[in-house]
Amino acid sequence: MMIGMGLPNLPEGPFWILLMLAVRVAVAAAIAYYAKRKGYNLWVFLAAALLFDPIASLIILLAIPRRNDCAGGCASTLPIR
């Protein structure tokens, strides 16, 4: 008899729980690293991916543009005269 809303046929035990946790942390770290490369805070995206759904964090990260730290005055963004 199955009690609760658990999913059937999933492995149980401390090893599998730690393995699933390690995979979640690794995915969150990869998302946070990609956020850092786009110019966003690594720690914010790491916390968001760990606390919320990593897939949702990745979708948000892919949707937002690359961050440009120059507030409109960078030499590389000025038109050539």
Unreliable stretches covering 5 or more consecutive residues: none
Question: Biggest β-sheet, characterized?
Answer: none
Mean pLDDT: 81
Report the count of strand segments: 0
Q: Helical stretch count?
A: 3
- The first-to-last residue Cα distance is 77 Å
DSSP strand content: under 5%
Order of helices and strands: HHH
Quick one: overall form?
elongated
What structural category arises from helix and sheet content? mainly alpha
Describe this structure in words.
The chain is 54% helix and 0% strand. With 81 residues, it is an all-alpha fold. The longest helix has 24 residues, at 14-37.
Keywords for this structure?
81 residues, mainly alpha, 0% strand
Please outline what is shown here.
This protein is mainly alpha-helical and 81 residues long.
Furnish the topology, listing elements before pairings.
Elements: H1 14-37, H2 42-51, H3 54-63
Helix pairs in contact: 1-2, 1-3, 2-3
